[in-house]
């Protein structure tokens, strides 16, 4: 993997050599162990795309199994070797696929690939800073992530398979190699990889927070920050507070696995042997895991809130509706995200009273989420909408976020969760609200900021094709999964045909699989567009979307330090679109009020 | 040969697609649309959003209708009725929000598409509107929370004194049931006592354990119309008891016994008539990933009329664990041999389900 990854960077940046300011840096300093936030952002992006392809491939494999349980997979033998046994996928390997798909998508793509790319790339550019507070730590953040990636990738090729106990790695299953072979070396590597990943996240998070607090350019008060920066800032805070708890859980699990402690293990008889562990509690692990796990879903979705708000405002040519309400709702969501974790554990055996508390807190979180949706829709109202590919993905994001979000109201209700917990209803819910929606936000971000990243435009027509196929298929895949969930189909089942209760919807599962494979293949339209446009795309102008934020005041290919001369000074908020009286329908943040007398509002006259 | 042909045709297809893409790019450069900011495609995309809403909305309604028969599983417990009515009520509420927001989202996208002669309306905020659409969801949520609380509290309240107690134990990869016998007390178990014959790890020195008896190898019985309390535990990894028809789910956790009680309202026979399926059985599935055989961890729960249940208990009571495990005891060795065979059969059956 390492070679693929690095060669990608080389190819990409070689083409740009002539555009960059030369600070007498060697190639390695400039493009590999780079401390430039823009290069690091791109490194995260390439790694994220690489992981997304892996994660998508894994899901295609297990969708084959679920859609066509009677089929034989002899044609996969050359790739999967002994994991295909007489044409049948090995059930333990199936679980490994599900586990790694979850781990990769949640952590490596939608956390590192998303926050890593856009926080790194956009924070200094949008707040008017030359670079991150600590370029060195930022570099370390990527390389810790890279190391974590190498280890996780290597674990895919272990003879006993990668971790297979679900991405939530609940012990005792994840602690006992006797219980499932993936809990042997695969799980060890999972834990090491995640520990390194957490280090990477913390190094990155500290940097993002410090940069946003300390390095804003003159005039850039917190109330003039683009919503993207607010979102990245809060994401970093969440990560900084939540990831150490996962670290502790991983550490205790390592102790239980390797040093004979009993934090999570008690009274176990497995594989013909009674274990000596006693007094531990598996539910403790779940508490620790979900204390990260729930903020984690907001770590995934918050950056896309920011990205989508920015893109919707820019392309509706309208100020984002309720800027302060948007910040307030993000603050509310961030705060609440820490006190709802146990809604993942309503039927784990924890005290039912806790269940009622967490149901209450969980349903509150629907309120700020609803406010955000209404504000986005209100921003579209009476806009003058330009459907760039990024805008298409953003509108679709809102749709997916609603569709996936409303079912959260059902699952957050502990009484209803009894029936739906660990069924396909849950799978459908989170794949829409944090899977598809976050992916759409990420695509929107890539389409929108690609010109700033590579100095060229992505092809719009290919973008439209990519978008419409992806949007339609996202619904074709996940809507029917709700039906399966209501019918009680449990998650992580290799096949359902063993149960009379679940021996139905076979054609629906085949349909979902076909849609899933189709949309996976369609992603290569994007990959082609991405790679092709880096080298041969139409050259971008400085401000192709007529946007207000500071990154569009840099040269087309910003060099090290971002602005060739002095840093820009900020006078206004980032959403002065279509202001009455202004000659153009946008006024960038660095335009002083003295130059816009025709459009100044009464309270702005004081700043002239 | 076929592989090469397939590979070649895929390559050919990709080349054609690439050429089409190039032609499109060159054509748009030629016509000038390449440089134009907002062209015809803006109208097409706006219209497509509207089309998407209509077509996908139609598909959604159609598929929901045609799937509803398979989707809604009949209810066989008292609290299941509460859960389902609350589920469909909540579905109604969120369905309303879902439809309303989507109409607005797609209609606005279409209606306010770019127009050269128009300018967007500068409208940065309106606090009154913000307050309205904060308070309304908050009130609706509060109502849902209260009704949820009521149901949840009822379901999770302590089991009534007269409840029929059954212990359900999960292990890789099957379920086993144990009944407390005449004293209505489950005897002591220790995981260190588990072996091939003593699957529960029953401590025979415990007085309460003397009259405990097992369910059938792959099924267990409960009576209709009285509270049934499942005492749930696991002896290896976490499993989860899921009885879809009874709206019952609770994790089986090693080292931490859990419980769930409910009142069955329909016997297996009644459900066979209702569903028109003579082979209908209530199935218990595992819903917490537990390893290779997770998807095959099935047990049948048979709901009897109380009198039939009583008969079954009387027959089953003779097969106590004590009599099975103390097979060598002089009292009744012939019976013990017979019982050992049964338990061998049980083990064989269990291994069979492992696949």
Summarize the structure in words.
The complex is a heterodimer of chains A (608) and B (355). Chain A has a single domain, classed as Cytochrome c oxidase-like, subunit I domain (Cytochrome C Oxidase, Chain A, Up-down Bundle). Chain A is 61% helix and 1% strand. Chain A has helices at 2-14, 27-32, 37-67, 77-80, 91-127, 135-155, 185-214, 227-258, 282-316, 323-336, 352-364, 366-380, 389-411, 414-420, 424-454, 460-486, 506-536; strands at residues 84-85, 88-89, 269-270, 273-274. In chain A, the strands form two sheets. Chain A has a two-stranded antiparallel sheet with strand order 1-2. A two-stranded antiparallel ribbon of chain A has the order 3-4. In chain A, helix 3 (37-67) runs antiparallel to helix 5, helix 5 packs across helix 9 (282-316) and helix 13 runs parallel beside helix 16 (460-486). Chain B has 355 residues and is an alpha+beta fold. Chain B has eight helices and ten strands. Chain B has helices at 2-31, 40-71, 78-111, 127-155, 268-275, 306-316, 321-325, 333-354, and strands at residues 164-171, 174-179, 213-214, 219-223, 228-234, 239-243, 248-252, 258-262, 282-286, 299-304. Chain B has a five-stranded mixed β-sheet with strand order 3-2-1-5-8. In chain B, strands 4-10-9-6-7 form a five-stranded mixed β-sheet. The longest helix of chain B has 34 residues, at 78-111. Chains A and B meet through helix 5, strand 3, helix 9, helix 10 and helix 11 of A and helix 1, helix 2, helix 3, helix 4 and strand 7 of B.
């Amino acid at each position: 993997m390492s070679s693929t990854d690095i060669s990608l960077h080389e190819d990409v940046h070689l083409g740009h050599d002539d555009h960059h300011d030369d600070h007498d840096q060697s190639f390695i300093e400039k493009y590999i162990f780079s401390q430039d936030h823009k290069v690091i952002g791109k490194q995260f992006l390439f790694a994220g795309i690489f992981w997304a392809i892996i994660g998508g491939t894994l899901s295609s494999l297990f969708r084959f199994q679920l859609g066509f349980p009677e089929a034989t997979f002899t044609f996969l033998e050359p790739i999967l070797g002994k994991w295909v046994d007489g044409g049948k996928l090995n059930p333990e390997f199936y679980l490994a696929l599900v586990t790694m798909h979850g781990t990769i998508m949640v952590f490596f793509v939608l956390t590192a690939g998303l926050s890593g790319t856009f926080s790194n790339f956009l924070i200094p550019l949008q707040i008017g800073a030359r670079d991150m507070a600590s370029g060195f730590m930022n570099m370390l953040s990527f390389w810790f992530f890279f190391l974590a990636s190498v280890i996780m990738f290597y674990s895919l090729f272990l003879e006993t398979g990668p971790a297979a106990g679900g991405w939530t790695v609940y012990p005792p299953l994840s602690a006992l190699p006797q219980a499932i072979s993936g809990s042997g070396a695969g799980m060890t590597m999972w834990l090491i990889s995640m520990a390194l990943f957490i280090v990477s996240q913390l190094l990155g998070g500290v940097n993002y927070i410090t940069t946003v607090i300390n390095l804003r350019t003159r005039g850039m008060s917190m109330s003039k920050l683009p919503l993207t920066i607010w979102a990245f800032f809060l994401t970093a805070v969440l990560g900084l507070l939540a990831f150490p708890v996962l670290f502790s859980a991983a550490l205790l699990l390592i102790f239980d696995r390797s040093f004979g402690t009993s934090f999570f293990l008690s009274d176990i008889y497995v594989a013909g042997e009674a274990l000596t562990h006693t007094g531990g509690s598996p539910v403790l692990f779940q508490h620790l895991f979900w204390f990260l796990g729930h903020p984690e879903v907001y770590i995934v979705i918050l950056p896309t809130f920011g990205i989508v708000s920015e893109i919707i405002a820019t392309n509706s040519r309208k100020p984002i509706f309720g800027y302060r309400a948007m910040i307030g709702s993000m603050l509310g969501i961030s705060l609440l995200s820490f006190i709802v974790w146990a809604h993942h554990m309503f039927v784990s055996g924890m005290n039912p009273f806790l269940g009622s508390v967490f149901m209450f807190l969980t349903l509150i979180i629907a309120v700020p989420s609803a406010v955000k949706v209404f504000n986005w829709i209100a921003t579209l109202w009476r806009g003058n909408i330009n459907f760039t590919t990024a805008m298409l993905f953003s509108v679709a994001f809102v749709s997916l976020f609603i569709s996936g979000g409303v079912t959260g109201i059902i699952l957050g209700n502990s009484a209803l969760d009894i029936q739906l917990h660990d069924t396909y209803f849950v799978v459908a819910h989170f794949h829409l609200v944090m899977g598809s929606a976050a992916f759409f936000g990420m695509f929107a971000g890539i389409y929108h900021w690609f010109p700033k990243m590579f100095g060229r435009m992505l092809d719009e027509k290919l973008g439209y094709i990519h978008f419409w196929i992806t949007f339609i298929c996202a619904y074709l895949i996940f809507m029917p999964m709700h039906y399966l969930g209501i019918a009680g189909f449990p998650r992580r089942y290799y096949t359902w045909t063993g149960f009379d209760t679940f021996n139905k919807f076979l054609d629906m599962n085949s349909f979902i699989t076909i849609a899933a494979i189709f949309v996976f293949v369609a992603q290569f339209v994007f990959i082609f567009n991405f790679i092709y446009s880096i080298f041969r795309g139409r050259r971008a102008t400085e401000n192709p979307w007529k946007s207000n934020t500071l990154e569009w005041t840099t040269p087309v290919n910003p060099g090290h330090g971002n602005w060739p001369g002095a840093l820009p000074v900020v006078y206004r908020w980032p959403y002065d679109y279509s202001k009455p009286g202004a000659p153009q329908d946008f006024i960038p943040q660095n335009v002083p009020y003295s130059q816009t007398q025709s459009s100044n509002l009464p309270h702005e006259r004081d700043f002239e | 040969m076929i592989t090469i042909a397939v590979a070649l045709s895929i390559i050919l297809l990709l080349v054609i697609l690439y050429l089409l893409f190039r032609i499109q790019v060159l054509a748009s450069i030629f016509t000038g649309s390449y440089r134009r900011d907002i062209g015809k495609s803006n109208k097409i995309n706006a219209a497509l959003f509207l089309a998407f809403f209509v077509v996908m909305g139609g598909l959604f309604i159609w598929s929901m209708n045609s799937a509803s028969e398979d989707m809604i599983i009949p209810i066989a417990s008292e609290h299941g009725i509460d859960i389902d009515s609350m589920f469909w009520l909540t579905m109604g509420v969120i369905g309303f929000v879902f439809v309303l927001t989507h109409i607005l989202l797609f209609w606005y996208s279409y209606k306010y598409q770019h127009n050269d002669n128009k300018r967007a309306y500068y409208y940065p905020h309106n606090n009154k509107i913000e307050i309205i659409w904060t308070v309304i969801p908050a009130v609706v949520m509060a109502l849902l929370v209260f009704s949820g609380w009521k149901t949840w509290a009822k379901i999770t309240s302590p089991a009534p004194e007269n409840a029929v107690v059954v212990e359900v134990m999960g292990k890789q990869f099957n379920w086993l049931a144990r009944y407390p016998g005449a004293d209505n007390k489950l005897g002591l178990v220790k995981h260190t006592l588990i072996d091939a014959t003593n699957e529960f790890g029953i401590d025979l020195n415990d007085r309460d354990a003397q009259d405990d008896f097992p369910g059938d190898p792959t099924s267990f019985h409960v009576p209709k119309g009285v509270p049934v309390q499942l005492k749930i535990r696991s002896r290896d990894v976490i499993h989860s008891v899921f009885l879809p028809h009874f709206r019952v789910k609770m994790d089986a956790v090693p080292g931490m016994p859990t419980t769930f009680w409910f009142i069955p309202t329909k016997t297996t026979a009644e459900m066979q008539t209702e569903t028109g399926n003579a082979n209908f059985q209530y199935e218990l599935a595992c819903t917490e990933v537990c390893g290779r055989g997770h998807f095959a961890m099935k047990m049948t729960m048979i709901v009897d009329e109380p009198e039939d249940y009583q008969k079954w208990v009387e027959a089953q009571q003779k097969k106590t664990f004590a009599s099975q495990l103390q097979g060598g005891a002089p009292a009744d060795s012939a019976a013990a041999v017979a019982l050992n065979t049964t338990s061998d059969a049980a083990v064989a059956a269990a291994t069979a389900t492992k696949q």
